[in-house]
What we know:
Elements: H1 7-10, E1 32-36, E2 39-43, H2 48-62, E3 69-72, E4 76-80, E5 83-85, E6 89-93, E7 98-99, E8 102-104, E9 108-114, H3 120-134, E10 138-142, E11 148-154, E12 157-164, E13 169-172, E14 178-181
Parallel strand pairs: 4-8, 9-10
Antiparallel strand pairs: 1-2, 3-6, 4-5, 6-9, 7-8, 10-11, 11-12, 13-14
Amino acid sequence: MMTTLTDEDMDPFTIDGHTAADLSHEPEDGLGRELHDGVIYVVPPPSNKHQWAESALERALLRRCPEDAYVFRGCGVHTGANRLYVPDAMVVKANTPFHDNAYDASGVLLVAEVVSPSSVTMDRAAKPAVYAECGIPSYWRVDRDLTMHCFELIDGAYVPVAKASRGEKLTLDHPWPVTITVDDLVLPHER
């Protein structure tokens, strides 16, 4: 017996699966959850090195954060109908709508990802492409070798604007003037 596919079956942009609202029904078990094209991805808690780097980014951003913006760690951003990502650090405008476990991407000024063994492809390829598609102006990535890459959105694509490794500092203008010493991303006893 032959099955006939409808136009909807063949439309690559028709997405079924989970929505951001479905994440509210997931267990509170300490595991992180993100939604990519309707599929829930469960990630283990980050390592101590990963958490330290996240905290260092947050501290650097908070030093000069204006009153009309918020800095978050572990907070979600809506990146599509069936997508919700949880960047390692994020800056949002204070008046950005929050619903179904995340902020609207329209008010996000910066997302930062600290790459872990389980997130290499997502943090280096998938997420930046989606964040750019959403119009998020700045993307930062800290690679496993602790090289920090900073990108700005220009004409719909991320363009590298700064890069620094251990022993170096970055001074950036966006989302506001901020200086990051890459060694601060490393646990003190490992510097």
